[in-house]
Design goal:
Length: about 100
């Protein structure tokens, strides 16, 4: 293959890879996987998996839910403490 043809093919291939990315068409979604999932071929399978996952999550939440009044109180205090720890600290007014 002549060097000019090799260079032209390489530039064309590079352009095919770069142009969609720069134009916004090459987003981070795995397009083939998204297309297959939305095509309806795997629809029943994905629906079943989602349902099983939701059921497992609900079962786990029921198993770990507080049962007694004391457990409810402890859970509430723990949630309040976590909210306080994750809240942004206000800036000091007199600092300088």
């Amino acid at each position: 293959m002549p060097p000019l043809r090799k260079r032209t093919c390489l530039m064309a291939l590079l352009a095919l890879l770069v142009v969609p990315t720069l134009s916004g068409c090459g987003n981070s979604e795995p397009t083939l996987a998204v297309a297959v999932a939305k095509s309806g071929v795997l629809g029943p399978l994905t629906d079943q998996l989602k349902q099983e996952d939701d059921e497992a999550e609900a079962k786990e939440l029921r198993e770990h839910a507080p049962q007694t009044r004391e457990e409810h109180q402890e859970a509430r205090e723990h949630e309040e403490q976590a909210a306080i720890e994750t809240a942004p600290e206000p800036e000091g007014e007199g600092e300088g």
